[in-house]
Amino acid sequence: MGAVIEVSELTKCYGSKRAVDHLSFTVRPGQVTGFLGPNGAGKSTTLRMILGLDAPTTGAATVSGVPFHRHPRGLRHVGALLEAGQVHGGRSAAAHLSALARSNGIPRRRVDEVLQEVGLTEVADRRIGGFSLGMKQRLGIATALLGDPPVLMFDEPINGMDPEGVRWVRRLFRRLAAEGRTVFLSSHLMSEMENTADQLVVIGRGRLIAAESVRDFAARGTRSSVMVGTPRAAELAAVLTAAGASVEPEGSAGAEKLAVTGIPADRIGALAFENGIRLNELTTRTASLEVAFMELTADSTEYQAGQPR
Ligand SMILES: Nc1ncnc2c1ncn2[C@@H]1O[C@H](COP(=O)(O)OP(=O)(O)OP(=O)(O)O)[C@@H](O)[C@H]1O
């Protein structure tokens, strides 16, 4: 099995504040896993504990079964982008990467390879201080890739990137996962994860809200509904209501539609058939991830963790 990030009952207190509260989850290789939560949910603190930059108050985090600080030459095992702004502004991109390569026993040729990979070859000798936020993000990604590690963690990697940068970074993450690596990305924006992640770990106020596939998470949105088109809307509405559904008329007269919740599409089709009512449309509308996310994090304390402890 490839490298797995395992977080177990992880807790971090700052004074009386619990930034991370008995958090347990697993991040597996070969997939992109999104780490999602509103601002202040505890994502950065969790990533810092996984990387051994902060000590947990209680609990543990391991990478491939071992705490990160016990991995010799860490950059070859885990590549991470935390705060992109925090690099020495006076150095060039090439000098910054070369220094890291030397101290981690990584061959010099990797510097040129990663600069090429992130599209910074042409500005390799410019001072990092003059880089835009998007360029700094690219440099941070280059740093994470330098040791060709099996595990990659990125904190808000899309911040400051233009639409082309966002498309590029999505392709890159998917490719890294397809190569069998463990890819873990944090974001406070669901929309960023919708097209990037396969799995989600969702937290609110330091606690686990959900750990499941993007698809299962979206399906939890309480607003999933079935759109039904029929020339006999009133009649069908009565049949569906009698069967326990809630029905909201939509559309204009002559092109009426019903938004149906509470019973699935196949049951609606069967009821229409049994009652001789013709349908011109029967479409399940899954609540958008954004809706599911907002609903689930609206009051984090109301929800139980989605994973057994
Ligand atoms: N060094 C610290 N001292 C005191 N409180 C802290 C410290 N670091 C984080 N916190 C608090 O812990 C909570 C979690 O912060 P954290 O930065 O981990 O959240 P986050 O999910 O990464 O948020 P964001 O999306 O805003 O980066 C916040 O309430 C924050 O104010």
Automatic annotation (TrEMBL):
SMART domains: AAA
Keyword Lipid biosynthesis applies: no
PROSITE patterns on file: ABC_TRANSPORTER_1, ABC_TRANSPORTER_2
ABC transporter domain: residues covered: 5-230
InterPro entries in UniProt: AAA+_ATPase, ABC_transporter-like_ATP-bd, ABC_transporter-like_CS, P-loop_NTPase
Record-linked Pfam families: ABC_tran
Any GO molecular function: ATP binding
UniProt feature coiled coil, ranges: none
Record key words, sorted: ATP-binding, Nucleotide-binding, Transport
Family membership noted in the UniProt record: Belongs to the ABC transporter superfamily.
Record's protein name: ABC transporter
Biological source species: Streptomyces yokosukanensis
Lineage: Bacteria, Bacillati, Actinomycetota, Actinomycetes, Kitasatosporales
